[in-house]
Amino acid sequence: MNKTYEKYYVPAQSPWPIVGAVALFLIAFGAGTFVNEVTKQQPGFGGYMLAAGFVVLIVMLFGWFKNVIDESMSGLYSAQMDRSFRQGMSWFILSEVMFFMAFFGALFYGRVIALDWLSGGSNNAMTFEILWPSFEAMWPLLKTPGGIETQAMPATGLPLINTAILVISSITLHFAHTGLEQQKRGQLKLMLLITLLLGATFLSLQVYEYIHAYRDLGLTLASGFYGNTFFLLTGFHGMHVTLGAIILLFVFLRVLKGHFTPEKHFAFQAAAWYWHFVDVVWLCLYVFVYVI
Amino acid sequence: MSAVVNDHEHDHEHHDHKPSGIKRWLYTTNHKDIGTMYLVFALVMFFIGGAMAMVIRAELFQPGMQFVEPNFFNQMTTVHGLIMVFGAVMPAFTGLANWMIPMMIGAPDMALPRMNNWSFWILPFAFLILLMSLFMPGGGPSFGWTFYAPLSTTYSGDSTALFVFSVHIMGISSIMGAINVIVTIFNLRAPGMTWMKMPLFVWTWLITAFLLIMVMPVLAGVVTMVLTDKYFGTSFFDAVGGGDPVLFQHIFWFFGHPEVYIMILPAFGIVSAIVPTFARKPLFGYASMVYATSSIALLSFLVWAHHMFTTGMPVAGALFFMYCTMLIAVPTGVKVFNWVATMWRGAMTFEVPMMFALAFIVLFTIGGFSGLMLAITPADFQYHDTYFVVAHFHYVLVTGAVFSIIAAVYYWLPKWTGHMYDETLGQWHFWCSLISVNLLFFPMHFVGLAGMPRRIPDYALQFADFNAFISIGGFLFGASQLIFVWVLVKCARGGEKATAQVWEGAEGLEWQVASPAPYHTFDTPPVIK
Q1: Chain-chain contact of B217 with A105 (C-beta, under 8 angstroms)
Q2: Which residues are registered as beta bridge partners of B505?
Q3: Which residues of A fall within a CB distance of 8 Å from B175?
């Protein structure tokens, strides 16, 4: 028997995974039904099912994380376990990167190839003549082949401010991390709080920007390829910021309770990685959606 | 609930603390329980998807419309494909990974045991949604498993949203499963289990897990675009708004091509385990196998547009994708060469796992060759969307992936149950499957080359004889799998006691623990020389 080896903690039975599976079932089935009901304006149960799914999911997350935090705080986790969590989180972030890649890929394809072909590029001269001879390729696509018009979202002003806010929030989060590592709990709390407030500001400004786009610019989800990529990329990014902020909020609450040590703070680390990832996505998004 | 699972005993004297009743399965964190659930689920899905194939073959037995409406026929082809890919083959491989990888690398369990259970339990719900959608007004998804726009956007039914969300949660399940496998392999190897000592099944699964993490999110992205195009007025795949249906194909196949390697790389690992055992020789060219697997995985990201030659692309693009595709034949050839070289002058015996592995090598190679034919752009213009393509991918997926899974089940079944399976019945299963599967898929090459299109419920008269033949092969193949269930049930209930090593030539950590494997193996890591 190798006594020097730290035992790998294998949790005993847990009800949370099956609760989580039920939650995802309610969400998927509810959303699949709800989408049809909303677009056809029929009454139905889909919305309730979807809402119930989210409630169950939140209950599951609370229960599951409570277990994990209790186990962690009672010292059941070895350094090897910590590595499992870290590696798991890193691979999860890679999968998130690939999710955004699908939408960035669509954006590049649309701009470089689809619009060129629609205006007669490559060997599509006849298609162009027959389908939409008056179509002009441009980016942002302000007038679709079908004739829907919109205005472009400028890169300066609010989006630039939002970029600054997110970059600063990444920096403050970094200082929160150094505060944690150097046992400066005051700096940790303050910097984490500032990060959270910056995140909330970013999200509020995004909401304001969406209202501005819909009301003043005529830029909507349905206004052609430019609107599609604009709203799906910024929308999914916004959802990720929301999720990241919720995670940071819980990390903040744990910090207030005195959790985390300079050596062991996986949850903090994971939340920070996630936040920095979301920040990098925004920088790419700002360049490719707003600027270029 | 947070009791530490640790017995300071050696595996042999280890007492199994199995929780009992339904809660054991619902709440489990045990990789063996979860592996079993994955495998049983995959088997059930295999029969449901197979029943749909029987409907397809019954309708195609004769020309003309006999049994089902065209729309229902399309739902059958669509859901058959989705179930077999996402519900049968992938979960079966994940089940094998769950059972075997921790035992092969000397780990106490998977790295993230609770998440492991979550990954599994999402699947039954996802497929429940997919199957329920068949009973909706207007029917289930009918646009083919590839759900090309605009079939899935402009022309699809109300069930599309359910399809999209069920694919979303299947994807969540796959990604979590893949993260678990990859972290287990990176972090839980026993001391001394260096990278180049890992069994090839572990290596191939490591690379498969990487592919899953890279491409399942892209699938999630493309189904999301289908959803917004259909319901929320976007026009990603509609030229009227500046989008392009070809964009759909690019994103889909960027996922889709690595996906087919996700369904075959673990099979390579299985065959690389079985052939040395029954040839009683170490695997020939271990390192080259690792490099070949990695090369195939890398190339899989560069070949997606070979599914789209007839869609149209610039000549430079067609050439690039053609050459990259053909390049895949090189590492694949290395593998086939190595398996054959392993058998060269081996002391071979031909138990059922070996028979299926041998059939795999021959028949998968046939599927590989027809793939090479399809890779040639000008030739593809003739083959595209014909039964030749159907023949090709069924050779690689049925006689490839499915045969490897069956081989793996026979190979490890004594380790799982502690009993030897019935060798006579197993041989019956093998020979019935082998003959019927070739009756079923080989003539498809001919009707395809003669021009019979795929996904059509009716066909021209000249294809009648071949199709009757194919259908008979199909029914026989379906019936042959009942023997498999018989063998499994019989083996689970009893039989000759299996030794720890089970097979005379078997090597590896999984053969050093007792049969059946104790509920918890390697609480403390074994020493690897």
Answers
A1: no
A2: none
A3: 92, 95
Chain B residue numbers touching A126 (CB-CB < 8 A):
none
Contacts of B241 (CB under 8 A, 6+ apart): A144, A145, A146, A148, A222, A223, A224, A225, A228, B234, B235
Q: What is the ipTM of this complex?
A: 0.95
Contact B6, A11 (CB under 8 A): no
> Residue A15 — pLDDT band, cuts 50, 70, 90?
very high
Rg of chain B over all Cα atoms, to the nearest angstrom? 23
d(C-alpha B458, C-alpha B464), whole Å:
10
What backbone torsions phi and psi does residue A95 show, to the nearest 5 degrees? -65, -35
Q: SS3 string of B247-298?
A: HHHHHHHHHHHHHHHHCCHHHHHHHHHHHHHHHCCCCCCHHHHHHHHHHHHH
Structural tokens at position B198: 């890992």
Please name the residues in contact with B488: beta carbons below 8 A apart, sequence gap of 6 or more.
B43, B409, B413, B421
B108, A10: Cβ pair inside 8 Å? Answer: yes
Smallest CA-to-CA distance from B421 within B356, B343, B342 is with B356
Residue A257 tokens, joined: 């309770």
Q: How far apart are CA B449 and CA B376, in angstroms?
A: 15
In which band, very low, low, confident or very high, does the pLDDT at A31 lie, cut at 50, 70 and 90?
very high
Q: If you measure CA to CA, which chain B residue comes closest to A139?
A: B242
CA–CA separation, B333 and B314 (whole Å): 30
Interface of B with A in 254-273 (CB under 8 A): 254
Burial of A253 (0-12, 13-18, 19+ CB in 10 A): exposed
Are the CB atoms for B40 and B413 separated by under 8 Å? no
The overall average pLDDT reported for chain A is 93
AA identity, residue A83: R
Answer whether B11 touches A (CB < 8 Å): no
Amino acid letter at B442? F
* A244-267 confidence digits (pLDDT tens): 999 999 999 999 999 999 988 999
* Residue B423 confidence (pLDDT) above 90: yes
Question: What is the C-alpha separation between B60 and B54, in angstroms, rounded?
Answer: 10
In chain A, what residues touch B171 (CB-CB under 8 Å)? none
Q: A113 — contact with chain B (CB < 8 Å)?
A: yes
Q: Is the pTM of this model over 0.80?
A: yes
- Using pLDDT thresholds of 50, 70 and 90, give the confidence band for residue B17: low
Which is it for the CA torsion A224, B253, B164, A243, positive or negative? negative
B interface test, pick of A91, A132, A230, A231 with most B CB neighbours within 10 Å: A91
Contact B336, B320 (CB under 8 A): no
pLDDT (0 to 100) of residue B21: 86
| Percent of chain B whose pLDDT exceeds 70 | 97
Instruction: Please work out, in degrees rounded to the nearest 5, the angle formed at the alpha carbon of residue B510 by the alpha carbons of B508 and B513.
Output: 115
Three-class SS of residue B38? helix
Which residues in B lie closer than 8 A to residue A99 (C-beta atoms)? Answer: 217-218, 220-221
Which of A6, A19, A26, A29 has the most B C-beta neighbours within 10 Å, making it the best mutation to test the interface with B?
A29
Q: Are B142 and B74 in contact (CB under 8 A)?
A: yes
Mean residue pLDDT of chain B comes to 94
What amino acid occupies position B249?
Q
Please list, in sequence order, all residues whose beta carbon lies within 8 angstroms of the beta carbon of residue A197, skipping any fewer than 6 positions away: none
pLDDT over 60 (residue A134): yes
Structure tokens at B33: 């329980």
**A228: which chain B residues are within 8 Å (Cβ-Cβ)?**
228, 234-236, 241, 243
Is the CB of residue B55 less than 8 Å away from at least one CB of chain A?
no
User: Do B243 and A228 make contact, defined as CB atoms within 8 angstroms?
Assistant: yes
